Amino acid sequence: MSASRPLILASASPRRRELLATLGVPFEVVTAEVVEHQDPATDPREMVAHNAALKADWVAQWRPEAMVLGADTTVYLEGHALNKPADPAEARAMLRRLSGRTHTVFTGLAFRCAETGLRRDEGVASDVTFKPLDEALIEAYLAAVHTLDKAGGYAIQEHGELIIARQEGSLSNIIGLPLEQTKHILTELGLLG
């Protein structure tokens, strides 16, 4: 791979854009026009891998010369994926379920380059333990943070001190893009020095 090959982030997530920008590699954003698999009963590793690949494959077919990075993240608790809440009531219900428990955040990464035939997939998992939350704390958190575009109905980087007891593993993974793994792969592929 050459450093002159353009990098495209196949994601509409502003958090992924912000995280990828910290690596200092130039990239553009192209949002894949795909319907993501969201069945909460699906194995979360398979779901995020499938969705990341779906996004990367869609963009790679339109930009075959580019290196495309697709990513997808979900929150997994007691056999169910907690994707983005549909409304404030669902966000509230998710926070109640997460209260006082440990859950896993799974992210799938898919790197594609149609011109070279490159297909590389990785998965990253981190654990997050919530503080016990009462209704007043849930309402205070929902008033402070827009949660509808966030898996699990929360953002660890926004007022996380209100709700998070501890986290293990990659913090950037919990936010939506595991930087350590992303940087490692981009370096291997020659897009980062």
Total count of helical runs of at least 4 residues: 7
The Cα radius of gyration reads 17 Å
- Tell me the helix content: 25-40%
The first-to-last residue Cα distance is 12 Å
Number of β-strand runs = 7
Largest β-sheet summary: 7 strands, mixed
Structural class: alpha/beta
Count of domains: 1
Order of helical and strand elements: EHEHEEHEEHHEHH
Low-confidence stretches: none
- CATH architectural grouping: Alpha-Beta Complex
CATH class descriptor name? Alpha Beta
Q: How much beta, percentage-wise? A: 25-35%
In CATH terms, what is the fold-level topology? Maf protein
Gross geometry: elongated
Mean pLDDT: 94
Please tell me about this protein's structure:
The protein has helices at residues 14-21, 44-62, 88-98, 135-144, 160-163, 171-175, 179-188; strands at residues 7-10, 28-29, 67-77, 80-82, 102-113, 118-130, 164-168. With 193 residues, the chain is α/β, with parallel strands linked by helices. Strands 1, 2, 3, 4, 5, 6 and 7 form a seven-stranded mixed sheet that branches. A hairpin with a 2-residue loop joins strand 3 (67-77) and strand 4. Helix 3 crosses helix 4. The chain starts with 6 loop residues before the first strand and ends in a 5-residue tail after the last helix.
